[in-house]
Design brief:
Order of helices and strands: EEHHEHEHEHEHEEEHEHEHHHEE
Bound molecules: oxa(dethia)-CoA
CATH superfamily of the largest domain: Thiolase/Chalcone synthase
Number of helices: 11
Number of strands: 13
Helix content: 25-40%
Strand order of the largest sheet: 1-7-6-4-5
Length: 335
């Protein structure tokens, strides 16, 4: 049986920076409100007319990850692409990345688990490596939110939060069972599916129906979030799943070198940090600069933490996520 370990990481953020004061000009919001409630100062939005897309951002992040891994794209045995904003309704974005990278016929699978997408994808990749089925896997999280947000005061509780971007990792097998991904735990609770969702268009209400109605009050094609309810569940589930990871790895909170929480809200990260008695050096946050990039937030933060020298050989790292579904999960790994 093999373990899997990350051997290359990359990120890509569109160059267009949207500050809180930019948002103040188009909706009734304020820099003070956004910073106090979320910690966000700015985010990246793909500029209209630019070539960036969910898959192309994934390709850019992947190319960096592949180069750093020393593995040629053609040696990739499987692509897992986590997103809630795929380029097309179908097919998924994984196959588009495969084509762009010139990988002939490896499987390319999309993972639709929203903010927990990257954790789900990495845990899935780990299983394929553990069984020996695949050797090298490319795992991507990429999101293009900005084009689909309600950028009016009506949508402000959501649209100030989300940002665009992508992160990717290359994982490979190792025979050492005390390095790489040690444990993963995944959960979901479908009874809260609609509390953070985008329900229209759907297979009960196809696009032509929505277009034909042309109802200016139809908000079903914008994301909806019951913010306080999601927040309360997030702090509970983050704490539970980090605790499970610690127990399985037989680590104490003080053993953690780096906790990378999904960047949902700085207040959630701070709550978790306090609960486990972690120092600022043990938790990585970049929501201030990028907002919430859902499935991309963990690989972007992981890449940055590694680039900044905060994760090194032997570092004990925990990734933890919570989001729409509800879904949540964590991964413990030794770098
Ligand atoms: O990534 C997946 C997981 N996501 C999360 O975990 C997010 C969890 N939820 C949250 O982060 C927070 O609930 C939000 C940041 C979304 C909202 O913060 P909140 O403190 O829960 O605010 P709220 O929704 O209870 O709204 C409080 C007030 C309301 O005004 P009234 O009714 O008190 O007059 C809102 O209309 O703040 C108002 N408000 C805003 N004001 C200025 C909501 N959004 C904004 C805004 N600017 N952007």
């Amino acid at each position: 049986m093999y373990n899997s370990k990350i051997i290359g990481l990359g990120k890509y953020l569109p160059s267009n920076v949207v500050t809180n004061s930019d948002l103040e000009k188009i909706m009734d919001t304020s820099d003070v409100w956004i910073q106090e409630r979320t910690g966000i100062k700015e985010r990246r939005h793909i500029k209209k007319g630019s070539d960036d897309s969910t898959s192309s951002m994934g390709v850019k992040a992947s190319k960096i990850a592949l180069e750093r891994s020393g593995i040629d794209a053609k040696e990739i045995d499987l692509i897992l692409f986590a997103t809630l904003s795929p380029d097309y309704y179908f097919p998924g974005s994984g196959v588009l990345v495969q084509d762009e990278l010139g990988i002939p016929d490896c499987p390319a699978m999309d993972i639709r688990m929203q903010c927990s997408g990257f954790v789900y994808a990495l845990a899935t990749a780990d299983q394929f490596i553990k069984t020996g089925m695949y050797k090298n896997i490319l795992v991507i999280g990429s999101e293009y939110h900005s084009g689909g947000l309600d950028m009016t005061t009506r949508g402000r509780n959501i649209s100030v939060i989300f940002g665009d971007g992508a992160g990717a990792v290359v994982i490979t097998r190792t025979k050492k069972n005390d390095e790489g991904i040690l444990h993963s735990q995944l959960h979901s609770e479908g009874k809260y599916a609609k509390e953070l969702s985008l329900i229209g268009p759907n297979t009960g209400r196809w696009v032509p129906e929505i277009i034909n109605k042309n109802d200016p009050n139809d908000v079903s094609y914008f994301p909806y979030m019951n913010g306080q309810f999601v927040f309360k569940n997030a702090v509970i589930r983050f704490s539970e799943v980090i605790m499970k990871g610690l127990e399985k790895a037989k680590w104490k909170p003080s053993d953690i070198d780096m906790l990378i929480p999904h960047q949902a809200n700085l207040r959630i990260s701070q709550f978790v940090q306090k609960k486990f008695g972690l120092s600022d050096n043990q938790v990585y946050n970049n929501i201030q600069r990028y907002g919430n990039t859902t499935a991309a937030s963990i690989p972007i933060a992981l890449t940055e933490a590694w680039e900044e020298g905060k994760i090194n050989n032997g570092s004990k790292v925990i990734l933890a996520a919570f989001g729409s579904g509800f879904t949540w999960g964590s991964i413990t790994m030794k770098w």
